[in-house]
Write a structure and sequence with these properties.
The protein has 82 residues and is of the alpha+beta class. The chain has one domain. The chain has 2 helices and 4 strands. A hairpin with an 8-residue loop joins strand 1 and strand 2. The longest helix is centred in the last third of the chain and has 12 residues. It is globular. The N and C termini lie far apart (30 Å). It binds zinc ion. Zinc ion (ZN) binds next to loops.
Length: 82
Amino acid sequence: MPKYYLVRRTNFAGFHSVHKEGCPFLQNANRCIELGEFDSSCEAIWQARGIYTNSNACIFCVKESVATNAEHLFEWNMFSTS
Ligand SMILES: [Zn+2]
């Protein structure tokens, strides 16, 4: 499973980026929080949002998770009481 990293500093858009290992935009590892290994980027982003609520997938390396369906699912899970 790939490892995922959360950047401590916010990007130009004001979000903390979640990167997959090997991403060319991943900064020096000591500026990032290692989230661990995940089956899917969705799980990695969930983990990241437990640290910074304004975490978002890197559009370069974790682009599959920014699909509108996935975003919708995040929102739905966030507010679901079941
Ligand atoms: Zn990236």
